[in-house]
């Protein structure tokens, strides 16, 4: 999928329509990221709104020449969600989330049934090695740097890179065919 | 690192996840702009991850977009309306406050003015009352003098001027011999020079014995130019001399202005 740079620039110029189309393209994935961290639909909805309001208000701080728009969104969303999990109110209402990952969510939810590529994903999840689950969870969903992931998983940096390549490649084959 | 090596390295996956350190991310960024195959690879990685996250997401409520739209529009409109709607009540408020202050100042000034005019009026009243008292007492004195002139108990005598000193001068005496009360009208005397005063004497002729009756001064004045004297020996004649202020023990005969016999 090519990055819609024209839409991004129009949004940066204050075009609500362009912003609306970007929202349609990215909001669901961003919602998935947020949800996988806070594990509460209502909180995740509120955070999703906050994130896109932030995106609109700080649109000028993104440049199409510096990194992917999706990666920029990811960082904003993960930071907002992680901040939320550190808040007192959140800590009081929910317990130990750190062990839950995206596969747990997929296994326990019925959302798979509604997705167009659900069968591929289901297969992928079923086939996914525990090592892949761990590495995708940390790097993609939880926003760890490669160095942090290396330290947490006690795997050398180089291995982190090659393993994430292998794991995401598997995902790609199943999702995109 | 050539494009194939970069693709195989696993750095592109890290790049999309945002897990690369800045220097390595910069390297990938440059490669994306230089090599279309690298860009294509990044796009495919991104798409896979995007789909994975979408799969994890519960259904997104349509309400969310409405909420976002309201939020970003509120920011815009609230800034617009701030300028308009915040200023008007503020202006009205200040105007009201200024009017109110002005009103209070005006009323304070009115009160001050009224108080001042009350004070002026009070002072005027006091002055008028004093004048009234003065006029009343003067009227009483004049009435008394008139009573004296009309009374049968008083005899009127004219003291002619001393030819040597003041030939034009004269004085009139109204005497009650029974009670030894005398009213002396000094209208015919010239005004005494500064530092001098007229003194009235009661005279016995044989031998010549002058006794001071009193000074023509404010303390004895009854009406305009009319002076009242009591407590003096039976006179055979009255004389008026000009004396130094405070009067003298004996008359200065060189300054005898008028002299007249009292005959019964």
Strands, helices and their partners?
The complex is a heterodimer of chains A (177) and B (264).
Chain A: H1 5-12, H2 16-38, H3 41-57, H4 69-86, H5 88-93, H6 102-108, H7 118-127, H8 130-141, H9 146-153, H10 157-176
Chain B: H1 3-9, H2 11-17, H3 22-34, H4 36-56, H5 62-150, E1 155-160, E2 170-176, E3 181-185, E4 196-204, E5 209-215, E6 221-223, E7 226-230, E8 237-244, E9 256-261
Antiparallel strand pairs in B: 1-2, 2-3, 3-7, 4-5, 4-8, 6-7, 8-9
Helix pairs in contact in B: 2-4, 3-4
Q: Could you describe the 3D structure shown?
A:
Chain B: GO terms for molecular function: sigma factor antagonist activity. Chain B: InterPro entries: Anti-sigma-K/W_factor, RskA_C. Chain B: The chain crosses the membrane at residues 86-108. Chain A has 177 residues and is mostly helical. Chain A has helices at residues 5-12, 16-38, 41-57, 69-86, 88-93, 102-108, 118-127, 130-141, 146-153, 157-176. The mean pLDDT of chain A is 85. Chain A has ten helices and no strands. Chain A has two domains: 5-93, Rna Polymerase Sigma Factor, Chain: A (Orthogonal Bundle); 102-176, Arc Repressor Mutant, subunit A (Orthogonal Bundle), CATH 1.10.10.10. Chain B is an alpha+beta fold and 264 residues long. Among the domains of chain B are: 3-56, no CATH class; 155-261, Immunoglobulin-like, CATH 2.60.40. Chain B has helices at residues 3-9, 11-17, 22-34, 36-56, 62-150, and strands at residues 155-160, 170-176, 181-185, 196-204, 209-215, 221-223, 226-230, 237-244, 256-261. Chain B has a five-stranded antiparallel beta sheet. Chain B has a four-stranded antiparallel beta sheet with strand order 5-4-8-9, with no helix packed on it. The N and C termini of chain B lie far apart (164 Å). The model of chain B is unreliable at 77-84 (pLDDT under 50).
């Amino acid at each position: 999928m090519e990055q819609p740079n024209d839409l991004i620039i129009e949004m940066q110029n204050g075009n609500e329509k362009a912003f609306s189309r970007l929202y349609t393209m990215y909001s669901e994935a961003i919602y998935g990221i947020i949800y996988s961290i806070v594990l509460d639909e209502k909180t995740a909805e509120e955070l999703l709104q906050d994130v896109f309001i932030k995106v609109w208000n700080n649109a000028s701080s993104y440049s199409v020449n510096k990194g992917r728009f999706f990666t920029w969104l990811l960082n904003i969303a993960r930071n907002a969600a992680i901040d939320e999990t550190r808040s007192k109110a959140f800590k009081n209402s929910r317990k130990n989330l750190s062990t839950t990952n995206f596969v747990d969510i997929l296994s326990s939810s019925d959302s798979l049934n509604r997705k167009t590529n659900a069968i591929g994903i289901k297969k992928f999840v079923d086939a996914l090695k525990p090592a892949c689950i761990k590495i995708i969870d940390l790097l993609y969903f939880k926003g760890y740097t490669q160095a942090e992931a290396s330290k947490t998983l006690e795997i050398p940096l180089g291995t982190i890179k090659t393993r994430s390549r292998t794991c995401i490649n598997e995902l790609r084959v199943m999702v995109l065919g | 690192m050539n494009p194939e090596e970069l693709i195989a390295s696993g750095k592109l996956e890290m790049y999309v996840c945002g897990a690369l350190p800045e220097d390595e991310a910069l390297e990938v960024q440059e490669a994306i702009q230089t090599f279309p195959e690298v860009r294509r690879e990044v796009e495919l990685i991104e798409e896979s991850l995007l789909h994975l996250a979408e799969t994890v997401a519960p259904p997104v409520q349509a309400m969310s977009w409405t909420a976002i739209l309201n939020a970003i529009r509120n920011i815009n409109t609230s800034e617009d309306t701030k300028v308009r709607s915040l200023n008007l009540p503020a202006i009205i408020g200040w105007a009201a406050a200024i009017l109110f202050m002005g009103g209070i100042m005006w009323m304070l000034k009115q009160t001050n003015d009224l108080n001042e005019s009350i004070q002026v009026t009070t002072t005027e009243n006091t002055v008028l009352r004093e004048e009234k008292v003065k006029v009343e007492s003067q009227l009483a004195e004049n009435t008394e003098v008139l009573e004296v002139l009309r009374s049968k108990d008083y005899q009127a005598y004219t003291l002619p001027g001393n030819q040597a000193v003041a030939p034009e001068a004269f004085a009139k005496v109204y005497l009650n011999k029974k009670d030894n009360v005398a009213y002396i009208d000094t209208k015919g005397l010239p005004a005494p020079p500064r530092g001098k005063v007229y003194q009235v004497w009661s005279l016995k002729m044989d031998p010549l014995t002058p006794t001071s009756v009193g000074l023509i001064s404010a303390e004895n004045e009854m009406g305009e130019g009319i002076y009242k004297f009591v407590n003096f020996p039976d006179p055979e004649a009255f004389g008026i001399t000009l004396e130094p202020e405070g009067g003298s023990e004996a008359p200065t005969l060189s300054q005898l202005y008028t002299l007249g016999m009292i005959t019964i």
